[in-house]
Amino acid sequence: MPLYSLMCPDCGIVNEHFMGVDDTLLVVECPECGHGLTRKSHRHYMSDIPQIQGDTVAGGCNYNYYDENLECQITSKQHRKNEMAKQGLRDYSPDPEMRKFRDEQVYVLKHTERGDRQAAKEIHKKTKAATQRRRERAIDEIFDKAPLPEVPDI
Question: Do residues 75 and 115 both lie within one domain?
Answer without folding.
Answer: no
